[in-house]
Structures are given as structure tokens and as C-alpha cells.
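sry for the spam today, last one i promise. C-alpha cells for design, 297 residues
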């Protein structure tokens, strides 16, 4: 690395067109705001914990049910059903989203209109309404009804994510691929989609997190998922109705699952950046060539 490049790299930030670089007094003021906000949040958390302690929510009698083998099996079975519904809904939503996005990007007007109509309809419909319609009107079992409702809604949202990601790629990439004689399918598969994955990945993971949380709607149609299992424990009079402990346990598990999805997204992004197919190919420096046959370079 040359000294000139190194000096530029470690140079202080210059002025920005969007905002002014804060000076010493502004940085001190921002630090003070951050400290005050942290103290306020810590005080709020301490107040909530104090209320829980005063009302006896951390008493041993309310947490004792979680030590029973039957309660643990009930929670694990509910968690397994939640993960099963999420896995099915995630795979089917990605497939449906890709299909609807391809329809919206089609050059054929009827296909494009049909894809737009389906996307706008399912995206505007509440998830719970679709789940109840499939469960009650079509008389489908709870798991297929839940997966169908989640697939229709999240698939329509992911269709817009896929379409936006493909359109995000510079138009010159598409034109260059067509100039090389590639068909539209080849351009989409080999040129546009690989470049759009990086832009689409955060939105895809965010929508999958939404699908994971929406699996909790299954308890409304008697699907024995994680929240349904927690509800059975919380309303049990024999366990002194440990509502708050159940909420704490269930919310902790859901937060952990969402963090696991975020970690997986970051891992995929790191592998994508380290893929040799995405790295720049070194180009040999230009050399002098003879201008006429037989001449010396």
C-alpha cells in the first residue's frame, strides 16, 4: 500500500453533502444524549423488574411448573410444531414469491396483469382472515390452513422484494447480457439474480422473521404450536396461573429464534462475499505490441 493511499485512508472525514460533520461540542452533546437515554432505559427496565418482584412474578411457585417433565415435553412439542409450520411456510413463500415475481416481470401483458392482481390481493388481505377462510370455509386441517395463509401473504410480499431486487441491478448488466446473445431466462438466472441477492437478503430475512412470529396465530385455530402450549400452562389453576413467567419464557425463545435467523443471514452474506465467483478477475497489464507484421515491439 502506497503512503499516499494510506494517508488518504486515515485522513479525517471531510464535509458531507447530506449533513455537517459534528465538531467537538456537538460530539460531546451527542455523547451526553446517549448516556441520558441509556440511563432512562435502564431506569425503565429496573422499574418493570421491581413491579414484577413486588407482584410475586419471580416466586418459586410460579416457576416450578417449568421443572416438570410433562410441561417441558409440552413446550418442546409446541416448539417443534412451530418450527414445522415455519419451515413449510418459508419454503413455499420463497417459491411462490419467485413465481409471482417472474409473472410481474414477464413481457406478456396478461401474465403481468395476473401476477400484479394476485400480489396486490394477497398482500392487502390480513393473514388471520386468510387462515380462518382456509380453516373454516374450506374445512382444512389446522397445519395446512396455517401454512396456506402464511404462504399466500408472505409469498406476495416476497414477490415485491424479488422484483425490486432484480430491478435494482444496473440496466447495463441486462443490456450487456442480451448483447452477448443470452436468452431472458439465462439473463435472469446467471446475471440479474446473483447480483440482486445481496440487495434482497436483508428484506428476505426480515419477512421470514415476520412469518416465524405469525405462526403464533395458529393457536386461534387450535393448532398446537408454541404459544398454544404456553397458553395451556398459563391458564392452569393448578400452577397458580403463571402468566408472566410463560410470557417471559416464550418471548425469550422467539427472540432467540429471530436472532438465529439474523445470524444465518449474516453467515450467508459473508459466504457470498467470499465466493470466488463474485471476486474481481485480475487483468494483466497492457503490453506494447508490434504495429506491423514482422516489426519489433
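last one done:
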Amino acid at each position: 500500500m502506497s503512503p499516499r493511499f494510506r494517508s488518504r485512508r486515515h485522513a479525517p472525514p471531510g464535509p458531507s453533502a447530506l449533513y455537517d460533520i459534528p465538531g467537538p461540542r456537538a460530539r460531546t452533546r451527542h455523547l451526553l444524549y446517549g448516556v441520558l437515554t441509556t440511563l432512562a432505559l435502564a431506569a425503565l427496565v429496573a422499574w418493570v423488574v421491581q413491579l414484577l418482584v413486588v407482584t410475586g412474578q419471580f416466586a418459586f411457585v410460579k416457576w416450578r411448573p417449568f421443572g416438570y417433565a410433562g410441561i417441558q415435553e409440552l413446550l418442546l412439542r409446541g416448539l417443534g410444531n412451530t418450527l414445522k409450520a415455519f419451515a413449510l411456510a418459508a419454503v413455499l413463500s420463497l417459491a411462490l414469491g419467485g413465481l409471482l415475481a417472474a409473472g410481474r416481470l414477464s413481457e406478456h401483458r396478461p401474465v403481468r396483469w395476473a401476477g400484479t392482481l394476485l400480489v396486490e390481493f394477497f398482500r392487502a388481505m390480513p393473514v388471520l382472515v386468510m387462515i380462518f377462510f382456509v380453516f373454516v370455509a374450506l374445512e382444512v386441517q389446522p397445519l395446512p390452513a396455517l401454512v396456506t395463509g402464511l404462504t399466500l401473504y408472505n409469498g406476495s410480499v416476497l414477490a415485491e422484494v424479488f422484483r425490486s431486487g432484480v430491478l435494482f441491478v444496473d440496466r447495463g448488466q441486462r443490456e450487456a447480457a442480451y448483447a452477448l446473445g443470452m436468452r431472458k431466462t439465462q439473463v435472469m438466472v446467471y446475471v440479474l439474480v446473483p447480483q440482486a441477492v445481496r440487495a434482497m437478503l436483508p428484506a428476505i430475512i426480515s419477512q421470514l422473521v415476520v412469518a416465524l412470529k405469525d405462526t403464533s396465530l395458529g393457536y386461534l385455530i387450535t393448532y398446537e404450536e408454541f404459544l398454544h402450549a404456553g397458553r395451556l400452562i398459563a391458564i392452569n389453576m393448578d400452577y397458580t396461573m403463571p402468566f408472566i413467567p410463560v410470557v417471559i419464557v416464550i418471548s425469550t425463545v422467539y427472540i432467540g429464534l429471530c436472532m438465529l435467523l439474523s445470524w444465518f443471514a449474516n453467515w450467508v452474506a459473508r459466504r457470498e462475499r467470499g465466493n470466488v465467483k463474485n471476486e474481481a478477475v485480475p487483468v494483466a497489464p497492457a503490453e506494447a505490441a508490434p504495429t506491423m507484421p514482422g516489426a519489433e515491439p
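DSSP finds eleven helices and no strands in the chain. ok im logging off now
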